[in-house]
Automatic annotation (TrEMBL):
<dbReference type="InterPro" id="IPR021139">
    <property type="entry name" value="NYN"/>
</dbReference>
<feature type="domain" description="NYN">
    <location>
        <begin position="7"/>
        <end position="165"/>
    </location>
</feature>
<dbReference type="Pfam" id="PF01936">
    <property type="entry name" value="NYN"/>
</dbReference>
<dbReference type="GO" id="GO:0004540">
    <property type="term" value="F:RNA nuclease activity"/>
</dbReference>
<dbReference type="InterPro" id="IPR047140">
    <property type="entry name" value="LabA"/>
</dbReference>
<protein>
    <submittedName>
        <fullName>Uncharacterized LabA/DUF88 family protein</fullName>
    </submittedName>
</protein>
């Protein structure tokens, strides 16, 4: 599915990939992830999307964001909003879907292959729009979690589905104590 001369871009929905890897019992080694896709084609861009809490002195996701920023990833962040739900629980909202879609559509004319790291069914129209522009789309997520983290309509629309579990040996590492920071 990958060709050496393909111009590739990675679009990583940070919170979705984190949740999928966690459900499978491993952490992502982002250096290895980048190297793997550099081997598969000409990597044009590797985007990573996450929301950050502004009002905290220290965000547990900050070290990862800083490391990715210094190691060849294009970071796309925005402030997450905190609220209290009807049960009195503290919740965080920080959806990055629009930013991911805009970047993918802007880059599409310069791509042969887009790799979307998300199982969110909301991305099905994006995959379809990229395909209409002649871009092949691979989606990385998992069917092996309970429930599966890949929306059926997204998996069907993609040109290629890559099971995250199949990448464990290539891009995974054992989870750290406390693990990578949870994301919004």
């Amino acid at each position: 599915m990958f060709y050496k001369d393909d111009r590739l871009a990675l679009f990583i929905d940070g919170s979705n990939l984190y949740a999928a890897a966690k459900s499978l019992g491993f952490d992502i080694d982002y250096k290895l992830l980048r190297q793997e896709f550099e081997r598969r084609g000409k990597l044009i861009r590797a985007y990573y999307y996450t929301a950050l809490l502004d009002n905290e002195d220290y965000s547990p996701i900050r070290p990862l964001v800083d490391w990715l920023n210094y190691n060849g990833f294009t970071m796309v962040t925005k402030a997450a909003r905190e609220y209290t739900d009807t049960m009195g629980r503290r919740k965080v909202k920080g959806n990055m879907d629009v930013e991911l879609v805009v970047n993918a559509m802007e880059l599409a004319p310069r791509l042969d292959h887009a790799v979307l790291f998300s199982g969110d069914g909301d991305f099905r129209p994006l995959v379809e729009a990229l395909q209409r522009q002649g871009v092949r789309v691979s989606v990385v997520s998992t069917l092996r979690s309970q429930p599966p983290m890949i929306a059926d309509e997204l998996r069907r629309q993609a040109d290629n589905f890559i099971e995250l579990e199949a990448l464990r040996e290539v891009i995974g590492r054992p989870p750290r104590e406390g693990g990578q920071a949870p994301e919004a």
